[in-house]
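Feature request disguised as a bug report, sorry. It would help if multi-protein outputs had a clear separator. Right now it looks like this:
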Amino acid sequence: MNTFSSIDMELLNTVADIETIPQGAINIRKDGQAVLRRSSPNIILSSLEDKPGLKVEIKAGTKGESVHVPVILTAEGLNDKVYNTFIVGEDAEATIVAGCGIHCDSHQDSSHIGIHEIIVRKGAYLKYVEKHVGEGEGRGKRVFHPTTIIHVEEGATAELDMTQIRGVDDTFRVTNADIGTKGKLKIYERVLTHNDQTAKSEINVSINGAGGSAQILSRSVAQDKSKQVFMAKMIGRNDCLGHVECDAIIMGDSVIHAIPELSAESSEAILTHEASIGRIAGEQIIKLMSLGLTEDEAIDTIINGFLK
């Protein structure tokens, strides 16, 4: 069994809810190397042959199982790039817990580029959870550039829950999805930025099959002088339903751009969008302060509740 430091375990707990190393399928990547890998009878983990990364195969018919695949970076000035392929077999039901944490105590930038392809086979269900966090006392930037490509086949359902918690100085997230007949996809995205951090998210969803549906739900908070850009494009190519929703709280001297785009390529497509950006209402703060909270505690309570 590998020995993990207290910093390692703190990062693992934050990004993947790992307090102790769980049983079952797991892959922990630390500083560019797989330091712990274990398959289970129904979930097979192996290395990619042509590039650095991991292949996860969830067998058809698997029910109620999960696999943890977190990444942590603690080495100075490391630029880590990894490719992962996840295949969820027909009629399987499973959860993938991913995420990455960077601990930086130096002046050198550290970055993680994760390129993930997810295939959800016919009739399967996938819950994919990914959290990003940056920490440490160093002046070096903590940089994340994740790309997710997901294919939702006939009658399959996928939920992507992607969160940027704190301490991430620069991020550019790209999510591309295609949905087959009667397939369903929900994307939940939560982002918090502060200081002079920047965060850009680009989501492209194509509903190709009849009876397909998709939802993109984004909630974000920008504080201080941080900048955020949210771009979501949804294309309906058949009899389908699609909805894009973006809600954001803006504070201080921050800047937020929300750019939803709908494209109907069939007269049977029904696509909608909502977008709102605003500050925290003063009466909300006053109400919480009347219950004994300080102004800062009241603001933190409102932000935490909003991002949940």
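(second protein starts here, but nothing in the output says so)
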Amino acid sequence: MKLIFTSADLVTVSELKDMLNSAGIACFINNEVSSTLSGGIPQGECMPELWIEDDSRETEAVQIKKDWLAPRAAGTTWTCPKCGEQLESQFTSCWKCGTARA
């Protein structure tokens, strides 16, 4: 298992988890529940962490993370490679069929 991402924002960690799951990379969030205890315990010990299960997919997972974190040009639309739906730039997956943005 490899730690791929940590953030104080559980929603952000969950979004990346969804991206990795869409690519077929098995992963899980550690500290998902304890993140709600922030303030009662040191933040570093309760921040949500995203771990992948298969070490051999680390390079692919890291690239997906880099692409996901990269700033996108405002207003650039994209076309879903699976169903052809036109989507606005803020969407990372197709709202119609769920396919991840290429």
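Even a blank line would do. Unrelated, but nice: Helices lie at 10-22, 43-46, 58-69.
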